[in-house]
Design a protein that fits this description.
With about 280 residues, the chain is mainly beta. It has 3 domains: about 30-115; about 120-210, Sandwich (Immunoglobulin-like); about 215-275, Immunoglobulin-like, CATH 2.60.40. It is built from 1 helix and 20 strands. The protein has one helix spanning about 5-30; strands spanning about 35-40, 45-50, 60-65, 70, 80, 95-100, 110, 120-130, 135-140, 145-155, 155-165, 175-180, 185-195, 200, 205-210, 215, 225-235, 245-255, 260-265, 270-275.
Length: about 280
């Protein structure tokens, strides 16, 4: 008798048992689909469309959790509401909602945007200090959003930097940003843009600079370089309105500009120059 044949025959029941266990485990994993939504509580509830399971028996969703706690929402229906108001949340609080469903179907959250942070800040104060720092204080922030700092130059609001918002609602949030002033009167503001794409602005802060007016040379017949009388922020446009150079410096390398007319924004002034060749 072949001893190896006996060993193989003896292992067959064990193999069958292992296969049976794998089938049981795989059937259990058929209930492993998750929809995870993360964001900030904005005082609104979620609404879910909940189809039947693929087998036709029962509905797709079998559990919903909010920040790890199982909800008591009536998810055993074709549509249900995730009531977030019962979870002791304050506006702006971080929130994670997990909708667990069978893997042969998929529920649909109809309004996931209600968890997106919204710009609700209220400006308590905004001003520029004597040492050139823009400072502002806000309350009522409902979620972390970036503050975009803008300066009014050349008859338009110009982006100059960003500061990350704190998103706290219960206390005042204080921020600061080092500005680059131009001559004469300066104007600054901050804004936030949330998922609605509608900006929310602070009031305008004004600041009177004592720096001298900036000028440049040459104004015509530029060959290789434009020189300013002091360092300044600048933009150079071609005749089609395209920005070809921008920055902050005491001069501009014009050697690679093509011959023709250009428009120049600098300090708080606008001008033009002719590139010779």
């Amino acid at each position: 008798m072949n001893p190896f044949l006996n060993q193989s025959t003896e292992r067959r029941p064990l193999m069958r048992l292992l296969l049976a266990l794998l089938l049981i485990l795989s059937s259990g994993l058929s209930f492993a689909g998750n929809i995870v939504l993360e964001g900030n509580y904005q005082g609104k509830n979620l609404y879910v469309r909940n189809p039947f399971a693929g087998s036709g028996v029962g509905f797709c969703t079998y559990e919903v959790t909010v920040n790890g706690s199982v909800t008591t929402d009536e998810w055993n229906s074709s549509a249900f509401e995730v009531d977030l108001s019962v979870h002791n949340l304050d506006p702006g609080d971080r929130i994670v909602v997990v909708i667990k469903h069978k893997d042969d179907c998929a529920p649909k959250v109809l309004n996931p945007e209600v968890l997106n942070p919204q710009s609700t800040f209220e400006t308590q104060s905004i001003a520029v200090s004597n040492d050139g720092i823009l400072k502002w204080s806000t309350t009522n922030e409902a979620g972390v959003l970036t503050y975009i700092v803008e300066q009014y130059r050349w008859n338009k609001w110009v982006y100059v930097g960003e500061v990350e918002g704190a998103g706290r609602t219960g206390t005042a949030n204080n921020y600061s940003f080092m500005i680059t002033a131009h001559s004469s009167e300066n104007k600054f503001r901050v804004k936030q843009v949330d998922y609605t794409a509608v900006p929310r602005y602070s009031p305008t802060a004004t600041y009177q600079s004592d720096m001298a007016l900036v000028d440049f040379n040459p104004k015509k017949g530029v060959e290789d370089k434009i020189t300013f009388t002091a360092e300044t922020m600048f933009e150079v446009f071609d005749i089609h309105g395209n920005i070809v150079k921008k920055g902050f410096s005491g001069n501009i390398d014009a050697s690679n500009l093509k011959k023709g007319l250009y428009y120049l924004n600098f300090d708080n002034s606008t001008s033009e120059f002719m590139k010779k060749k």
